[in-house]
Amino acid sequence: MSTVAAFYPVGTPGQAWGALERAQWLALQQVQRSYAGEVVSKIDALRERFDVSQYGELDYPSGRYPLFAIRSRNWDETLPVMLVTGGVHGYETSGVQGALQFVDQQAQSYAGRCNLLVAPCVSPWGYERIQRWNAEALDPNRSFVANSPAQESAALMALVAPLQGRVLMHIDLHETTDTDETEFRPALAARDGKPFEPGEIPDGFYLVDDTENRQPQFQQAVNAEVAKVTHLAPADERGEIIGSTVVAEGVIEYPLKALGLCASVSGARYTTTTEVYPDSPKATPQQCNDAQVAAVVGALDYALTHN
Q1: Structural domain boundaries enclosing 97
Q2: CATH code, 203
Q3: Residue 2 lies in a domain
Q4: Which of 79, 74, 97 has the alpha carbon at shortest distance from 87?
Q5: Residue 177 maps to a domain
Q6: Region label for 180, one of left (φ > 0), alpha (ψ between -120 and 50) or beta (otherwise)
Q7: Which residue blocks in the chain are alpha helix, DSSP H?
Q8: CA 186, 189, 195, 197 torsion: positive or negative?
């Protein structure tokens, strides 16, 4: 476990941020990679095989970012819809690249069996800055709520809204990184004026099920596919992963809708959030992407056979 100082360089300990502190935080965020070069170029390369549409655009003082969705070419209203989302937290690289790799390598094998809708990079501003939050210091993955304050979340909700009741499976691709403990959780505590309480980062892959719609066999099927690619995260000495009770190997649960999490957005029967650990000495960046692809394949195959 990494040890970090309790003090965050923005704000006053014990006081929630106001507009000044948010502006100070924003000034620290620098572009570190290219959404156009690393993401949009790959989406464009898929246009010959899939339908690509722009479903929104982020509008920040630092720039505008088009948001893209990829759909099965021969959309069939009689088939179930399967939703794949990535990059809700922009810094979680394999969520974005894994979604794109899945479309490129695996998606066509599901033609005629289901309708695929993939939003590979929900938060491109965060992708470029390797940042969890958006430009307004909001966490998009706590903002899937009515009248969402986050542009990223509101745009995805609008994309999915016409499909309510028709989505069979939704898998949301994420990572848990060492920087969660060294940067993002301290920032959250500082922003909200709360004390920072150190935690542990699990070494391995795990899933988040929905406490309000438990699907344990679905989660196990996804993990079984992932285990062919990389290792699952063990429980800590308290039988937990990131503070939540482990209910099965590599599985914890959250109340998705109550927390405003992306996996709640579609009302799908089968939902899960993946968590890859890219900082593991036992996993390469490509393995992390492969693990996300394996998770999507496992989720699709289970949903299609248990519809």
Answers
A1: 19-305
A2: 3.40.630.10
A3: no
A4: 97
A5: yes
A6: alpha
A7: 19-28, 35, 41-45, 93-105, 124-129, 151-160, 178-179, 185-192, 216-226, 285-305
A8: negative
Tell me the pTM.
0.96
In a 3-state reduction of DSSP, which class is residue 182? helix
C-alpha span between 144 and 219 (Å, rounded) = 22
* Axis-axis angle for helices 285-305, 216-226 (nearest 10): 140
Q: What pairing do the DSSP bridges indicate for beta strands 206-210 and 251-254?
A: parallel
Going by pLDDT thresholds of 50, 70 and 90, the confidence category of residue 53 is: very high
- Number of residues that this document lists for the chain: 307
Domain count, the chain: 1
CA distance 17 to 204: 34
**Which residue reads 């927390």 in tokens?**
259
For the cut 50, the answer to whether the pLDDT of residue 133 exceeds it is: yes
In a domain, 5, yes or no: no
Write out pLDDT tens, residues 23-52: 999 999 999 999 999 999 999 999 999 999
Q: What residues form DSSP beta bridges with 117? A: 71, 83
- For 113, the token pair is 């069996």
* Residues in contact with 54: Cβ distance below 8 Å, sequence separation at least 6, in sequence order: 66, 67, 68, 69
State mean pLDDT over 284-293: 97
Catalytic residue list: 275
> Is the Cα dihedral 85, 123, 278, 194 positive or negative?
negative
Ramachandran bin of 34, using left for φ above 0, alpha for ψ from -120 to 50, beta for the remaining angles: beta
The identity of residue 263, as a single letter, is A
Contacts of 296 (CB under 8 A, 6+ apart): 84, 98, 99, 102, 106, 171, 173
Angle at 117 between CA 158 and CA 65, to 5 degrees: 55
Considering the domain boundaries, does residue 189 fall inside one?
yes
Residue 4 binned pLDDT confidence (cut-offs 50, 70, 90): very low
First to last CA, the chain: 42
Partners of 82 in the β-ladder:
116, 169
Residue type, 248: A
